[in-house]
From TrEMBL:
Its main location: membrane. Belongs to the ABC transporter superfamily. ABCG family. Eye pigment precursor importer (TC 3.A.1.204) subfamily. Keywords: ATP-binding, Membrane, Nucleotide-binding, Transmembrane, Transmembrane helix, Transport. It comes from Corchorus olitorius. Pfam families: ABC2_membrane_7, ABC_tran. The keyword Membrane applies. It is a multi-pass membrane protein. One of its GO terms (cellular component) is membrane. This is ABC transporter-like protein. GO terms for molecular function: ABC-type transporter activity; ATP binding; ATP hydrolysis activity. Residues 102-344 form the ABC transporter domain. It is found in: Membrane.
Amino acid sequence: MPGSSSQQTKKKDKGNLTKMLQELEDNPDSYDGFNIEIGDKNMKKNAPRGKALHTQSQMFRYAYNQIEKEKAMQEQNKNLTFSGVISMANDTEIIKRLTIEVAFKDLTITLKGKNIHLMRSVTGKLSPGRVSAVMGPSGAGKTTFLSALTGKAPGCIMTGTILINGKDDPIQAYKKIIGFVPQDDIVHGNLTVEENLWFSARCRLAADLPKPEKVLVVERVIESLGLQPVRDSLVGTVEQRGISGGQRKRVNVGLEMVMEPSLLILDEPTSGLDSSSSQLLLRALRREALEGVNICMVVHQPSYTLFRMFDDLILLAKGGLTVYHGSVKKVEEYFSGLGITVPERANPPDYFIDILEGIIKLSPSTGLTTKQLPVRWMLHNGYPVPMDMLKLIEGTEASSGSESNGYGRLGHKLWIT
Ligand SMILES: Nc1ncnc2c1ncn2[C@@H]1O[C@H](COP(=O)(O)OP(=O)(O)OP(=O)(O)O)[C@@H](O)[C@H]1O
């Protein structure tokens, strides 16, 4: 059949989807030679009964129909009314991602053979549909915390519990729906943006997912991350300059986004980016969160605008101790309750980190030292306090009988701040 040589097919495979679909519309049978090696099973399953999808042109027609459906829905969305939303909810088959809630209790990581804690008594929860920022001074244990969430602590002993959706399952059981974006880029410099994402999609998505659906996933990620203008550009290497640093970071995140994770963990995805590039990336992540994705990332020195784009904050002090874990909106209120007020022109996240770094000394009027902040957090939440840490708060007494497990609790009077 004309126009179906393998060379042409390869080109089309890599090319722009819109162009391919336009060609398909003009000449629907021209893709019979397209090499689709996976996904036939589902295609057949989804096809009308008794009409198996035999040819690739039929498969492309299917993909085309899916896009047309999306376009129609977008058109419908333009004039949304309340009753319109209700009717859409009734008419449309809404496919939701599985959601993951991660609750951790008393998470403690100790170096093997040494009594050195990298993380101590960390308790909290990461919820689906929320974007959490992990912050703290350098060496506080932010990366260690992310690793612990994925069940990895090489060379260390990890104690405490991690519950996934309330169950004590090993986190490894969920690895297919957990994405991890490491600190260092893992993009292939000699491939284009689209090729990088395609490569990841082919490796990470289920082998039996129909190719048209994979196409849609990659297209959605390109669109969401604003990579459309550079989709055909080489990512670049040290020798050969490619896309910008911000775009490269977005591709790096996209490599994990194509697997459509339910929990997405990112280590410093905005480091080295200017404020607007960071905001662009965070906006894309917030859109993922709207779909129910649970997002947790380490972030360094965010601008106040960026900081306010997060839902929750996990603030760690050196030694992997929690100083605050909760809504970003309430962090200033919590610290002002301790007598720590952010000066007018200071950026709150910078101010808190400077306190934890010891650059800013706490005012004597607070009656607190930096080292006491983690204990104050434990007391504020009624968490058990390790005995050696309890001693950091002067004039307190541990409740009787609690010493055997190494934990103590303060009397109610001393709780009130
Ligand atoms: N496997 C290990 N063996 C020994 N020390 C370790 C190990 N992993 C982490 N550490 C130490 O634990 C502390 C926390 O490290 P981590 O990388 O989690 O900090 P961080 O807050 O992410 O720092 P940064 O912001 O500088 O990246 C550091 O002092 C680090 O040297």
